[in-house]
Amino acid sequence: MEDKIKCLILGSGPAGYTAAIYAARADLKPVVYQGLQPGGQLTITTDVENYPGFAEGINGPEMMEIFKKQSERFGADIRWGIATKVNLQKRPFEVTIDNEKTVHAETLIIATGASAKWLGMESEKKFNGFGVSACATCDGFFYKGQDVAVVGGGDTACEEASYLSKLCKKVYLVHRRDELRASKAMQNRVLKTKNIEVLWSHVPKEIIGDKAVNGFILENLKDNKEVKIDVQGVFIAIGHKPNSDIFKNQLEMDKSGYITTKPGTTRTNIDGVFAAGDVQDNVYRQAVTAAGTGCMAAIEAERFLASQEE
Ligand code: NDP
Q1: Which protein residues touch ligand 1 with a CB less than 6 Å away?
Q2: 52-68 mean pLDDT
Q3: Is 289 in the same domain as 179?
Q4: Closest to 146 in 3D by CA, of 58, 214, 56
Q5: Do residue 27 and residue 135 come from a single domain?
Q6: Mean pLDDT of 271-275
């Protein structure tokens, strides 16, 4: 059996790798299990232009490769594998990998991220990265001066529509009901913006295009008629799901499953367990904020271990 791991990190997005860099440099000999989507959500975007340090922008998968290499340079042990079960009731914590192997960890950093929810249409998959996106802050810039659609009626959709309205000629907000779910403040902002048009009671049918998107077919639920809007971009904003299922009933979380951390820290309700990145953040959800909390988690893990030795 493998010896106790001092610092086990689950997830390999900006939070996981940044935690690994800091933990490795602090000699915590971190082990990282990469999870279901090695490199995290940035591996499904094209160019990342808002991460400081890359003046010309960088391709998402390439950036995550650099994160990985940087953590390996300091000795982080990066492994394939998905955590399928955890027991956080006693220390060392027990984490089952791929349903077969159990590892023991003195500290655990959860950086399992969140996954954007998708509509599930074939055309959505086909044009992912070529007109279809789930992140306006990441990809909005590419649609400067063009027409786009945002699908959803919650705070995320309204926020994305607002953001895009400053860059794009016209933004259609496609919502399946005749009332928005978003907070009143967000609703007001959207409804007051001249170049946002809300298409109430419309549902997506098909995204169309050649190499990239050039149209979006919707159904108006009021009369069941099909409508085609000419857009170059379609942003899906129907919510995110934090990847926290395996921690249910052990860690405190909000009703959507985001792990609760003590304000200003990455500490969870269990001593020695830290959460960083999108799995605990339903507000900012940026690579740079995820990296920041990854750094915090590693520093907190180091201090926690030091306090145990005193
Ligand atoms: P929500 O779950 O609040 O909203 C999802 C929206 O997508 C709903 O309007 C829903 O429609 C629609 N939707 C869901 N599935 C489909 C589908 N298959 N087809 C069409 N439409 C669909 O998610 P959000 O990401 O907007 O927000 C999540 C949480 O994060 C909320 O608590 C929100 O307040 C918070 N948040 C806060 C922000 C802030 O404070 N700045 C910014 C962003 C999010 P319907 O309404 O009919 O169910």
Answers
A1: 119, 151-157, 159, 176-177, 181, 238-240, 256, 282-283
A2: 95
A3: no
A4: 214
A5: no
A6: 98
